[in-house]
Amino acid sequence: MPVSKRIKEICEYINNNSRVADIGCDHGYLILEAIASKKILYAQLIDNKIAPLEKAKTNLKNIKLNMDYTLSDGLDDLNPIIDTVVIAGMGGILIKEILQKNLVKLENRNLIIQANNNLERLREFLYNNLIYPVSEKIIFEKSYFYQIMYLKKEKTIKKYNFEDLYLGMKLKNSNSVILKKYCSMELKKYEKIKEDVSENKDIELIEKKINVLKKTLRRFINKT
Ligand SMILES: C[S@@+](CC[C@H](N)C(=O)[O-])C[C@H]1O[C@@H](n2cnc3c(N)ncnc32)[C@H](O)[C@@H]1O
């Protein structure tokens, strides 16, 4: 089974010599790719359902690495030796709930997140808990954009604004052509929504988004 670009890009944020936990491991492909592309010292595959854990065990049966398969909710039974937590392929609200339940376990750990939706609400929660991006990227695969964040909990508060929630504190300054493509598509989408008065429930939010997108796209034009 070829590993997706999304999973490869997530694994790029895993450091060599890490002890990694994959929360919501499902098929186990993320740990499989992490082991193939990085030097991993230990892996904990966590899922709250038995069937995905069994699937992961089958997919990783030939891998010789110290690994544990844990049937558990989110970070409840995180092995204390873990230094890197990955949560990917879930909705932003579910990820927020998983983190909120065990916030204390994020101290001094690297956190890698790829949420499928509700990024603004997830980011608001992260920033309010002093968890800020060290690096962020956006990728495009099979008609979908994915934003991937590498974060750490910090000691001091950083101010943030709407742009930081919408495009990410780091991603908003990226020169990525994928970001440009994303902003162009979002702009088209929100301009269309704005035109359609019947759908127009939250004009203020739509206008805020349009302004951020136009500002970001201007940055790209000024660079060429
Ligand atoms: C859509 S899959 C994502 C799989 C993989 N992480 C990826 O990015 O391709 C979501 C997985 O998370 C698991 N899951 C959902 N809620 C969970 C929770 N609270 N704790 C642990 N696993 C959870 C589901 O059982 C499922 O296997």
Summary?
This protein has 224 residues and is an alpha/beta fold.
Tell me about this structure.
It is a single chain. The chain has 224 residues and is an alpha/beta fold. It folds into two domains: 5-157, Rossmann fold; 177-223. It is 41% helix and 24% strand. The chain has eight helices and seven strands. It has helices spanning 5-11, 29-37, 50-59, 92-101, 119-128, 162-167, 177-195, 203-223; strands at residues 18-23, 40-47, 67-71, 84-90, 110-115, 131-141, 144-153. A seven-stranded mixed β-sheet has the order 3-2-1-4-5-7-6, with helices on both faces. A hairpin with a 2-residue loop joins strand 6 (131-141) and strand 7. Helix 1 (5-11) packs across helix 2. The structure holds S-adenosylmethionine. Residues 23-24, 26, 30, 46-49, 52, 73-74, 88-90, 94, 98 line the site of S-adenosylmethionine (SAM).
CATH architecture type of the largest domain = 3-Layer(aba) Sandwich
**Distance between the terminal alpha carbons, to the nearest Å?**
40 Å
Number of domains: 2
The side-by-side strand order for the widest beta sheet comes to 3-2-1-4-5-7-6
Broad CATH class of the largest domain = Alpha Beta
Shape label: globular
The helix fraction, in percent, is: 40-55%
Query: Uncertain regions: pLDDT < 50 for 5+ in a row?
Result: none
Q: Main beta sheet, described?
A: 7 strands, mixed
The SSE string, one letter per element, is HEHEHEEHEHEEHHH
**SSE-based structural type:** alpha/beta
Instruction: Output the CATH topology of the largest domain.
Output: Rossmann fold
- Can you tell me the CATH superfamily of the largest domain? Vaccinia Virus protein VP39
Figure out the total of helices.
8
Record field, number of beta strands:
7
